[in-house]
Structure formats: structure tokens, C-alpha cells
Recover the amino acids of this structure.
């Protein structure tokens, strides 16, 4: 007589439970992976808007805006400095906006941190404009303080492109600038 081996019912139920448990775990892991991916995408999409509200830039980001200033400007790791002892140098400091924040309606303002070794006036003009070269608004601020100084430009109207144009007196420089979009 051949014996027919039939697994007991607990073994069958146990195998089904184990297979169901594995499928459940796989689908749970997949759900968690999707959730984390989508969640990080949402955070990443909203983070630049917040990050763009406030930015720090070193003075070394500024560039000569006049070819005659090229030879007198010295750029360090975090500053730009006019080494000429008798003439002004002219620079432009581009503002990196990143991804625009639609909630920003009032434009931007800038705090300039400068170092001067004379009492001549250092003036910076914050400009906003469009890609076609049309300027929307510009506001100026200046300091004649000797040594380290910082000053704020008034807020300019919202645009697409922003820049700070500065006239550096002899023996003066820009250490850094902070931008706020509001």
C-alpha cells in the first residue's frame, strides 16, 4: 500500500501565512520607498523658495565692471580689493537668486560688508531688471566710514535679474554681501 502524504493543515496555513507576510513586507517596503522619494521631492521643491529668501556671498564673487579697473583689483578667497591708491575701481556683484519664489513680491535688498582705509565714499547701487537689459528699479546706498562698515540698500522692485554695482575708492574692498528676498 502506498501511503499518501498530506501535509497537516497547520503546515499549509503556516506556508500561506509566510508567503503573505513576505508579500506584505515587500509591498510595505515599496510603499515606504515611494513615500520617502515623493516626500524628499516635495521638500526639495519647497526648500529653494525658503533658501532663496536669504543668501550670503563672498566679496570675491564680484567682478570688474570696467576694463580699466582690472589691473587694480585683487581677489582673495572671500574678498575683492582695490589696490590703487588714487583711483576708484568699479565692480558688479551678481546676485544668485536660484529658483524664484512666487511668494516674493517686494523684491530684494542687500547688506554690503566693506573695508576701507580712507574717508572717501564707497557707493553701491542695487539694480533689478529683465533678461532683455531693461532695468526695473535701482537704489543706492553709500558709506564714508573708515575701517570695517556695513550698509543696507533700499529694497528694489521685483525683477528677474539682480546685481549690485559698486564704486570702490582707493584702498577699499568688499568682504561679503547678504541678500534678502521679501
Amino acid at each position: 500500500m502506498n501511503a499518501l502524504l498530506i501535509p497537516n493543515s497547520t503546515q499549509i496555513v503556516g506556508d500561506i501565512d509566510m508567503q503573505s507576510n513576505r508579500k506584505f513586507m515587500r509591498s510595505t517596503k515599496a510603499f515606504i520607498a515611494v513615500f520617502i522619494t515623493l516626500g524628499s521631492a516635495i521638500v526639495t521643491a519647497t526648500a529653494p523658495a525658503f533658501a532663496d529668501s536669504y543668501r550670503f556671498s563672498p566679496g570675491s564673487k564680484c567682478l570688474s565692471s570696467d576694463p580699466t579697473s582690472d589691473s587694480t583689483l585683487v581677489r582673495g578667497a572671500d574678498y575683492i580689493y582695490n589696490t590703487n591708491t588714487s583711483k576708484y575701481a568699479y565692480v558688479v556683484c551678481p546676485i544668485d537668486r536660484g529658483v524664484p519664489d512666487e511668494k516674493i513680491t517686494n523684491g530684494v535688498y542687500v547688506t554690503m560688508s566693506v573695508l576701507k582705509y580712507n574717508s572717501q565714499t564707497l557707493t553701491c547701487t542695487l539694480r533689478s531688471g529683465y533678461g532683455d537689459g531693461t532695468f526695473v528699479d535701482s537704489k543706492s546706498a553709500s558709506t564714508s566710514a573708515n575701517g570695517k562698515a556695513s550698509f543696507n540698500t533700499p529694497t528694489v522692485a521685483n525683477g528677474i535679474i539682480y546685481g549690485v554695482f559698486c564704486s570702490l575708492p582707493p584702498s577699499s574692498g568688499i568682504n561679503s554681501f547678504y541678500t534678502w528676498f521679501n
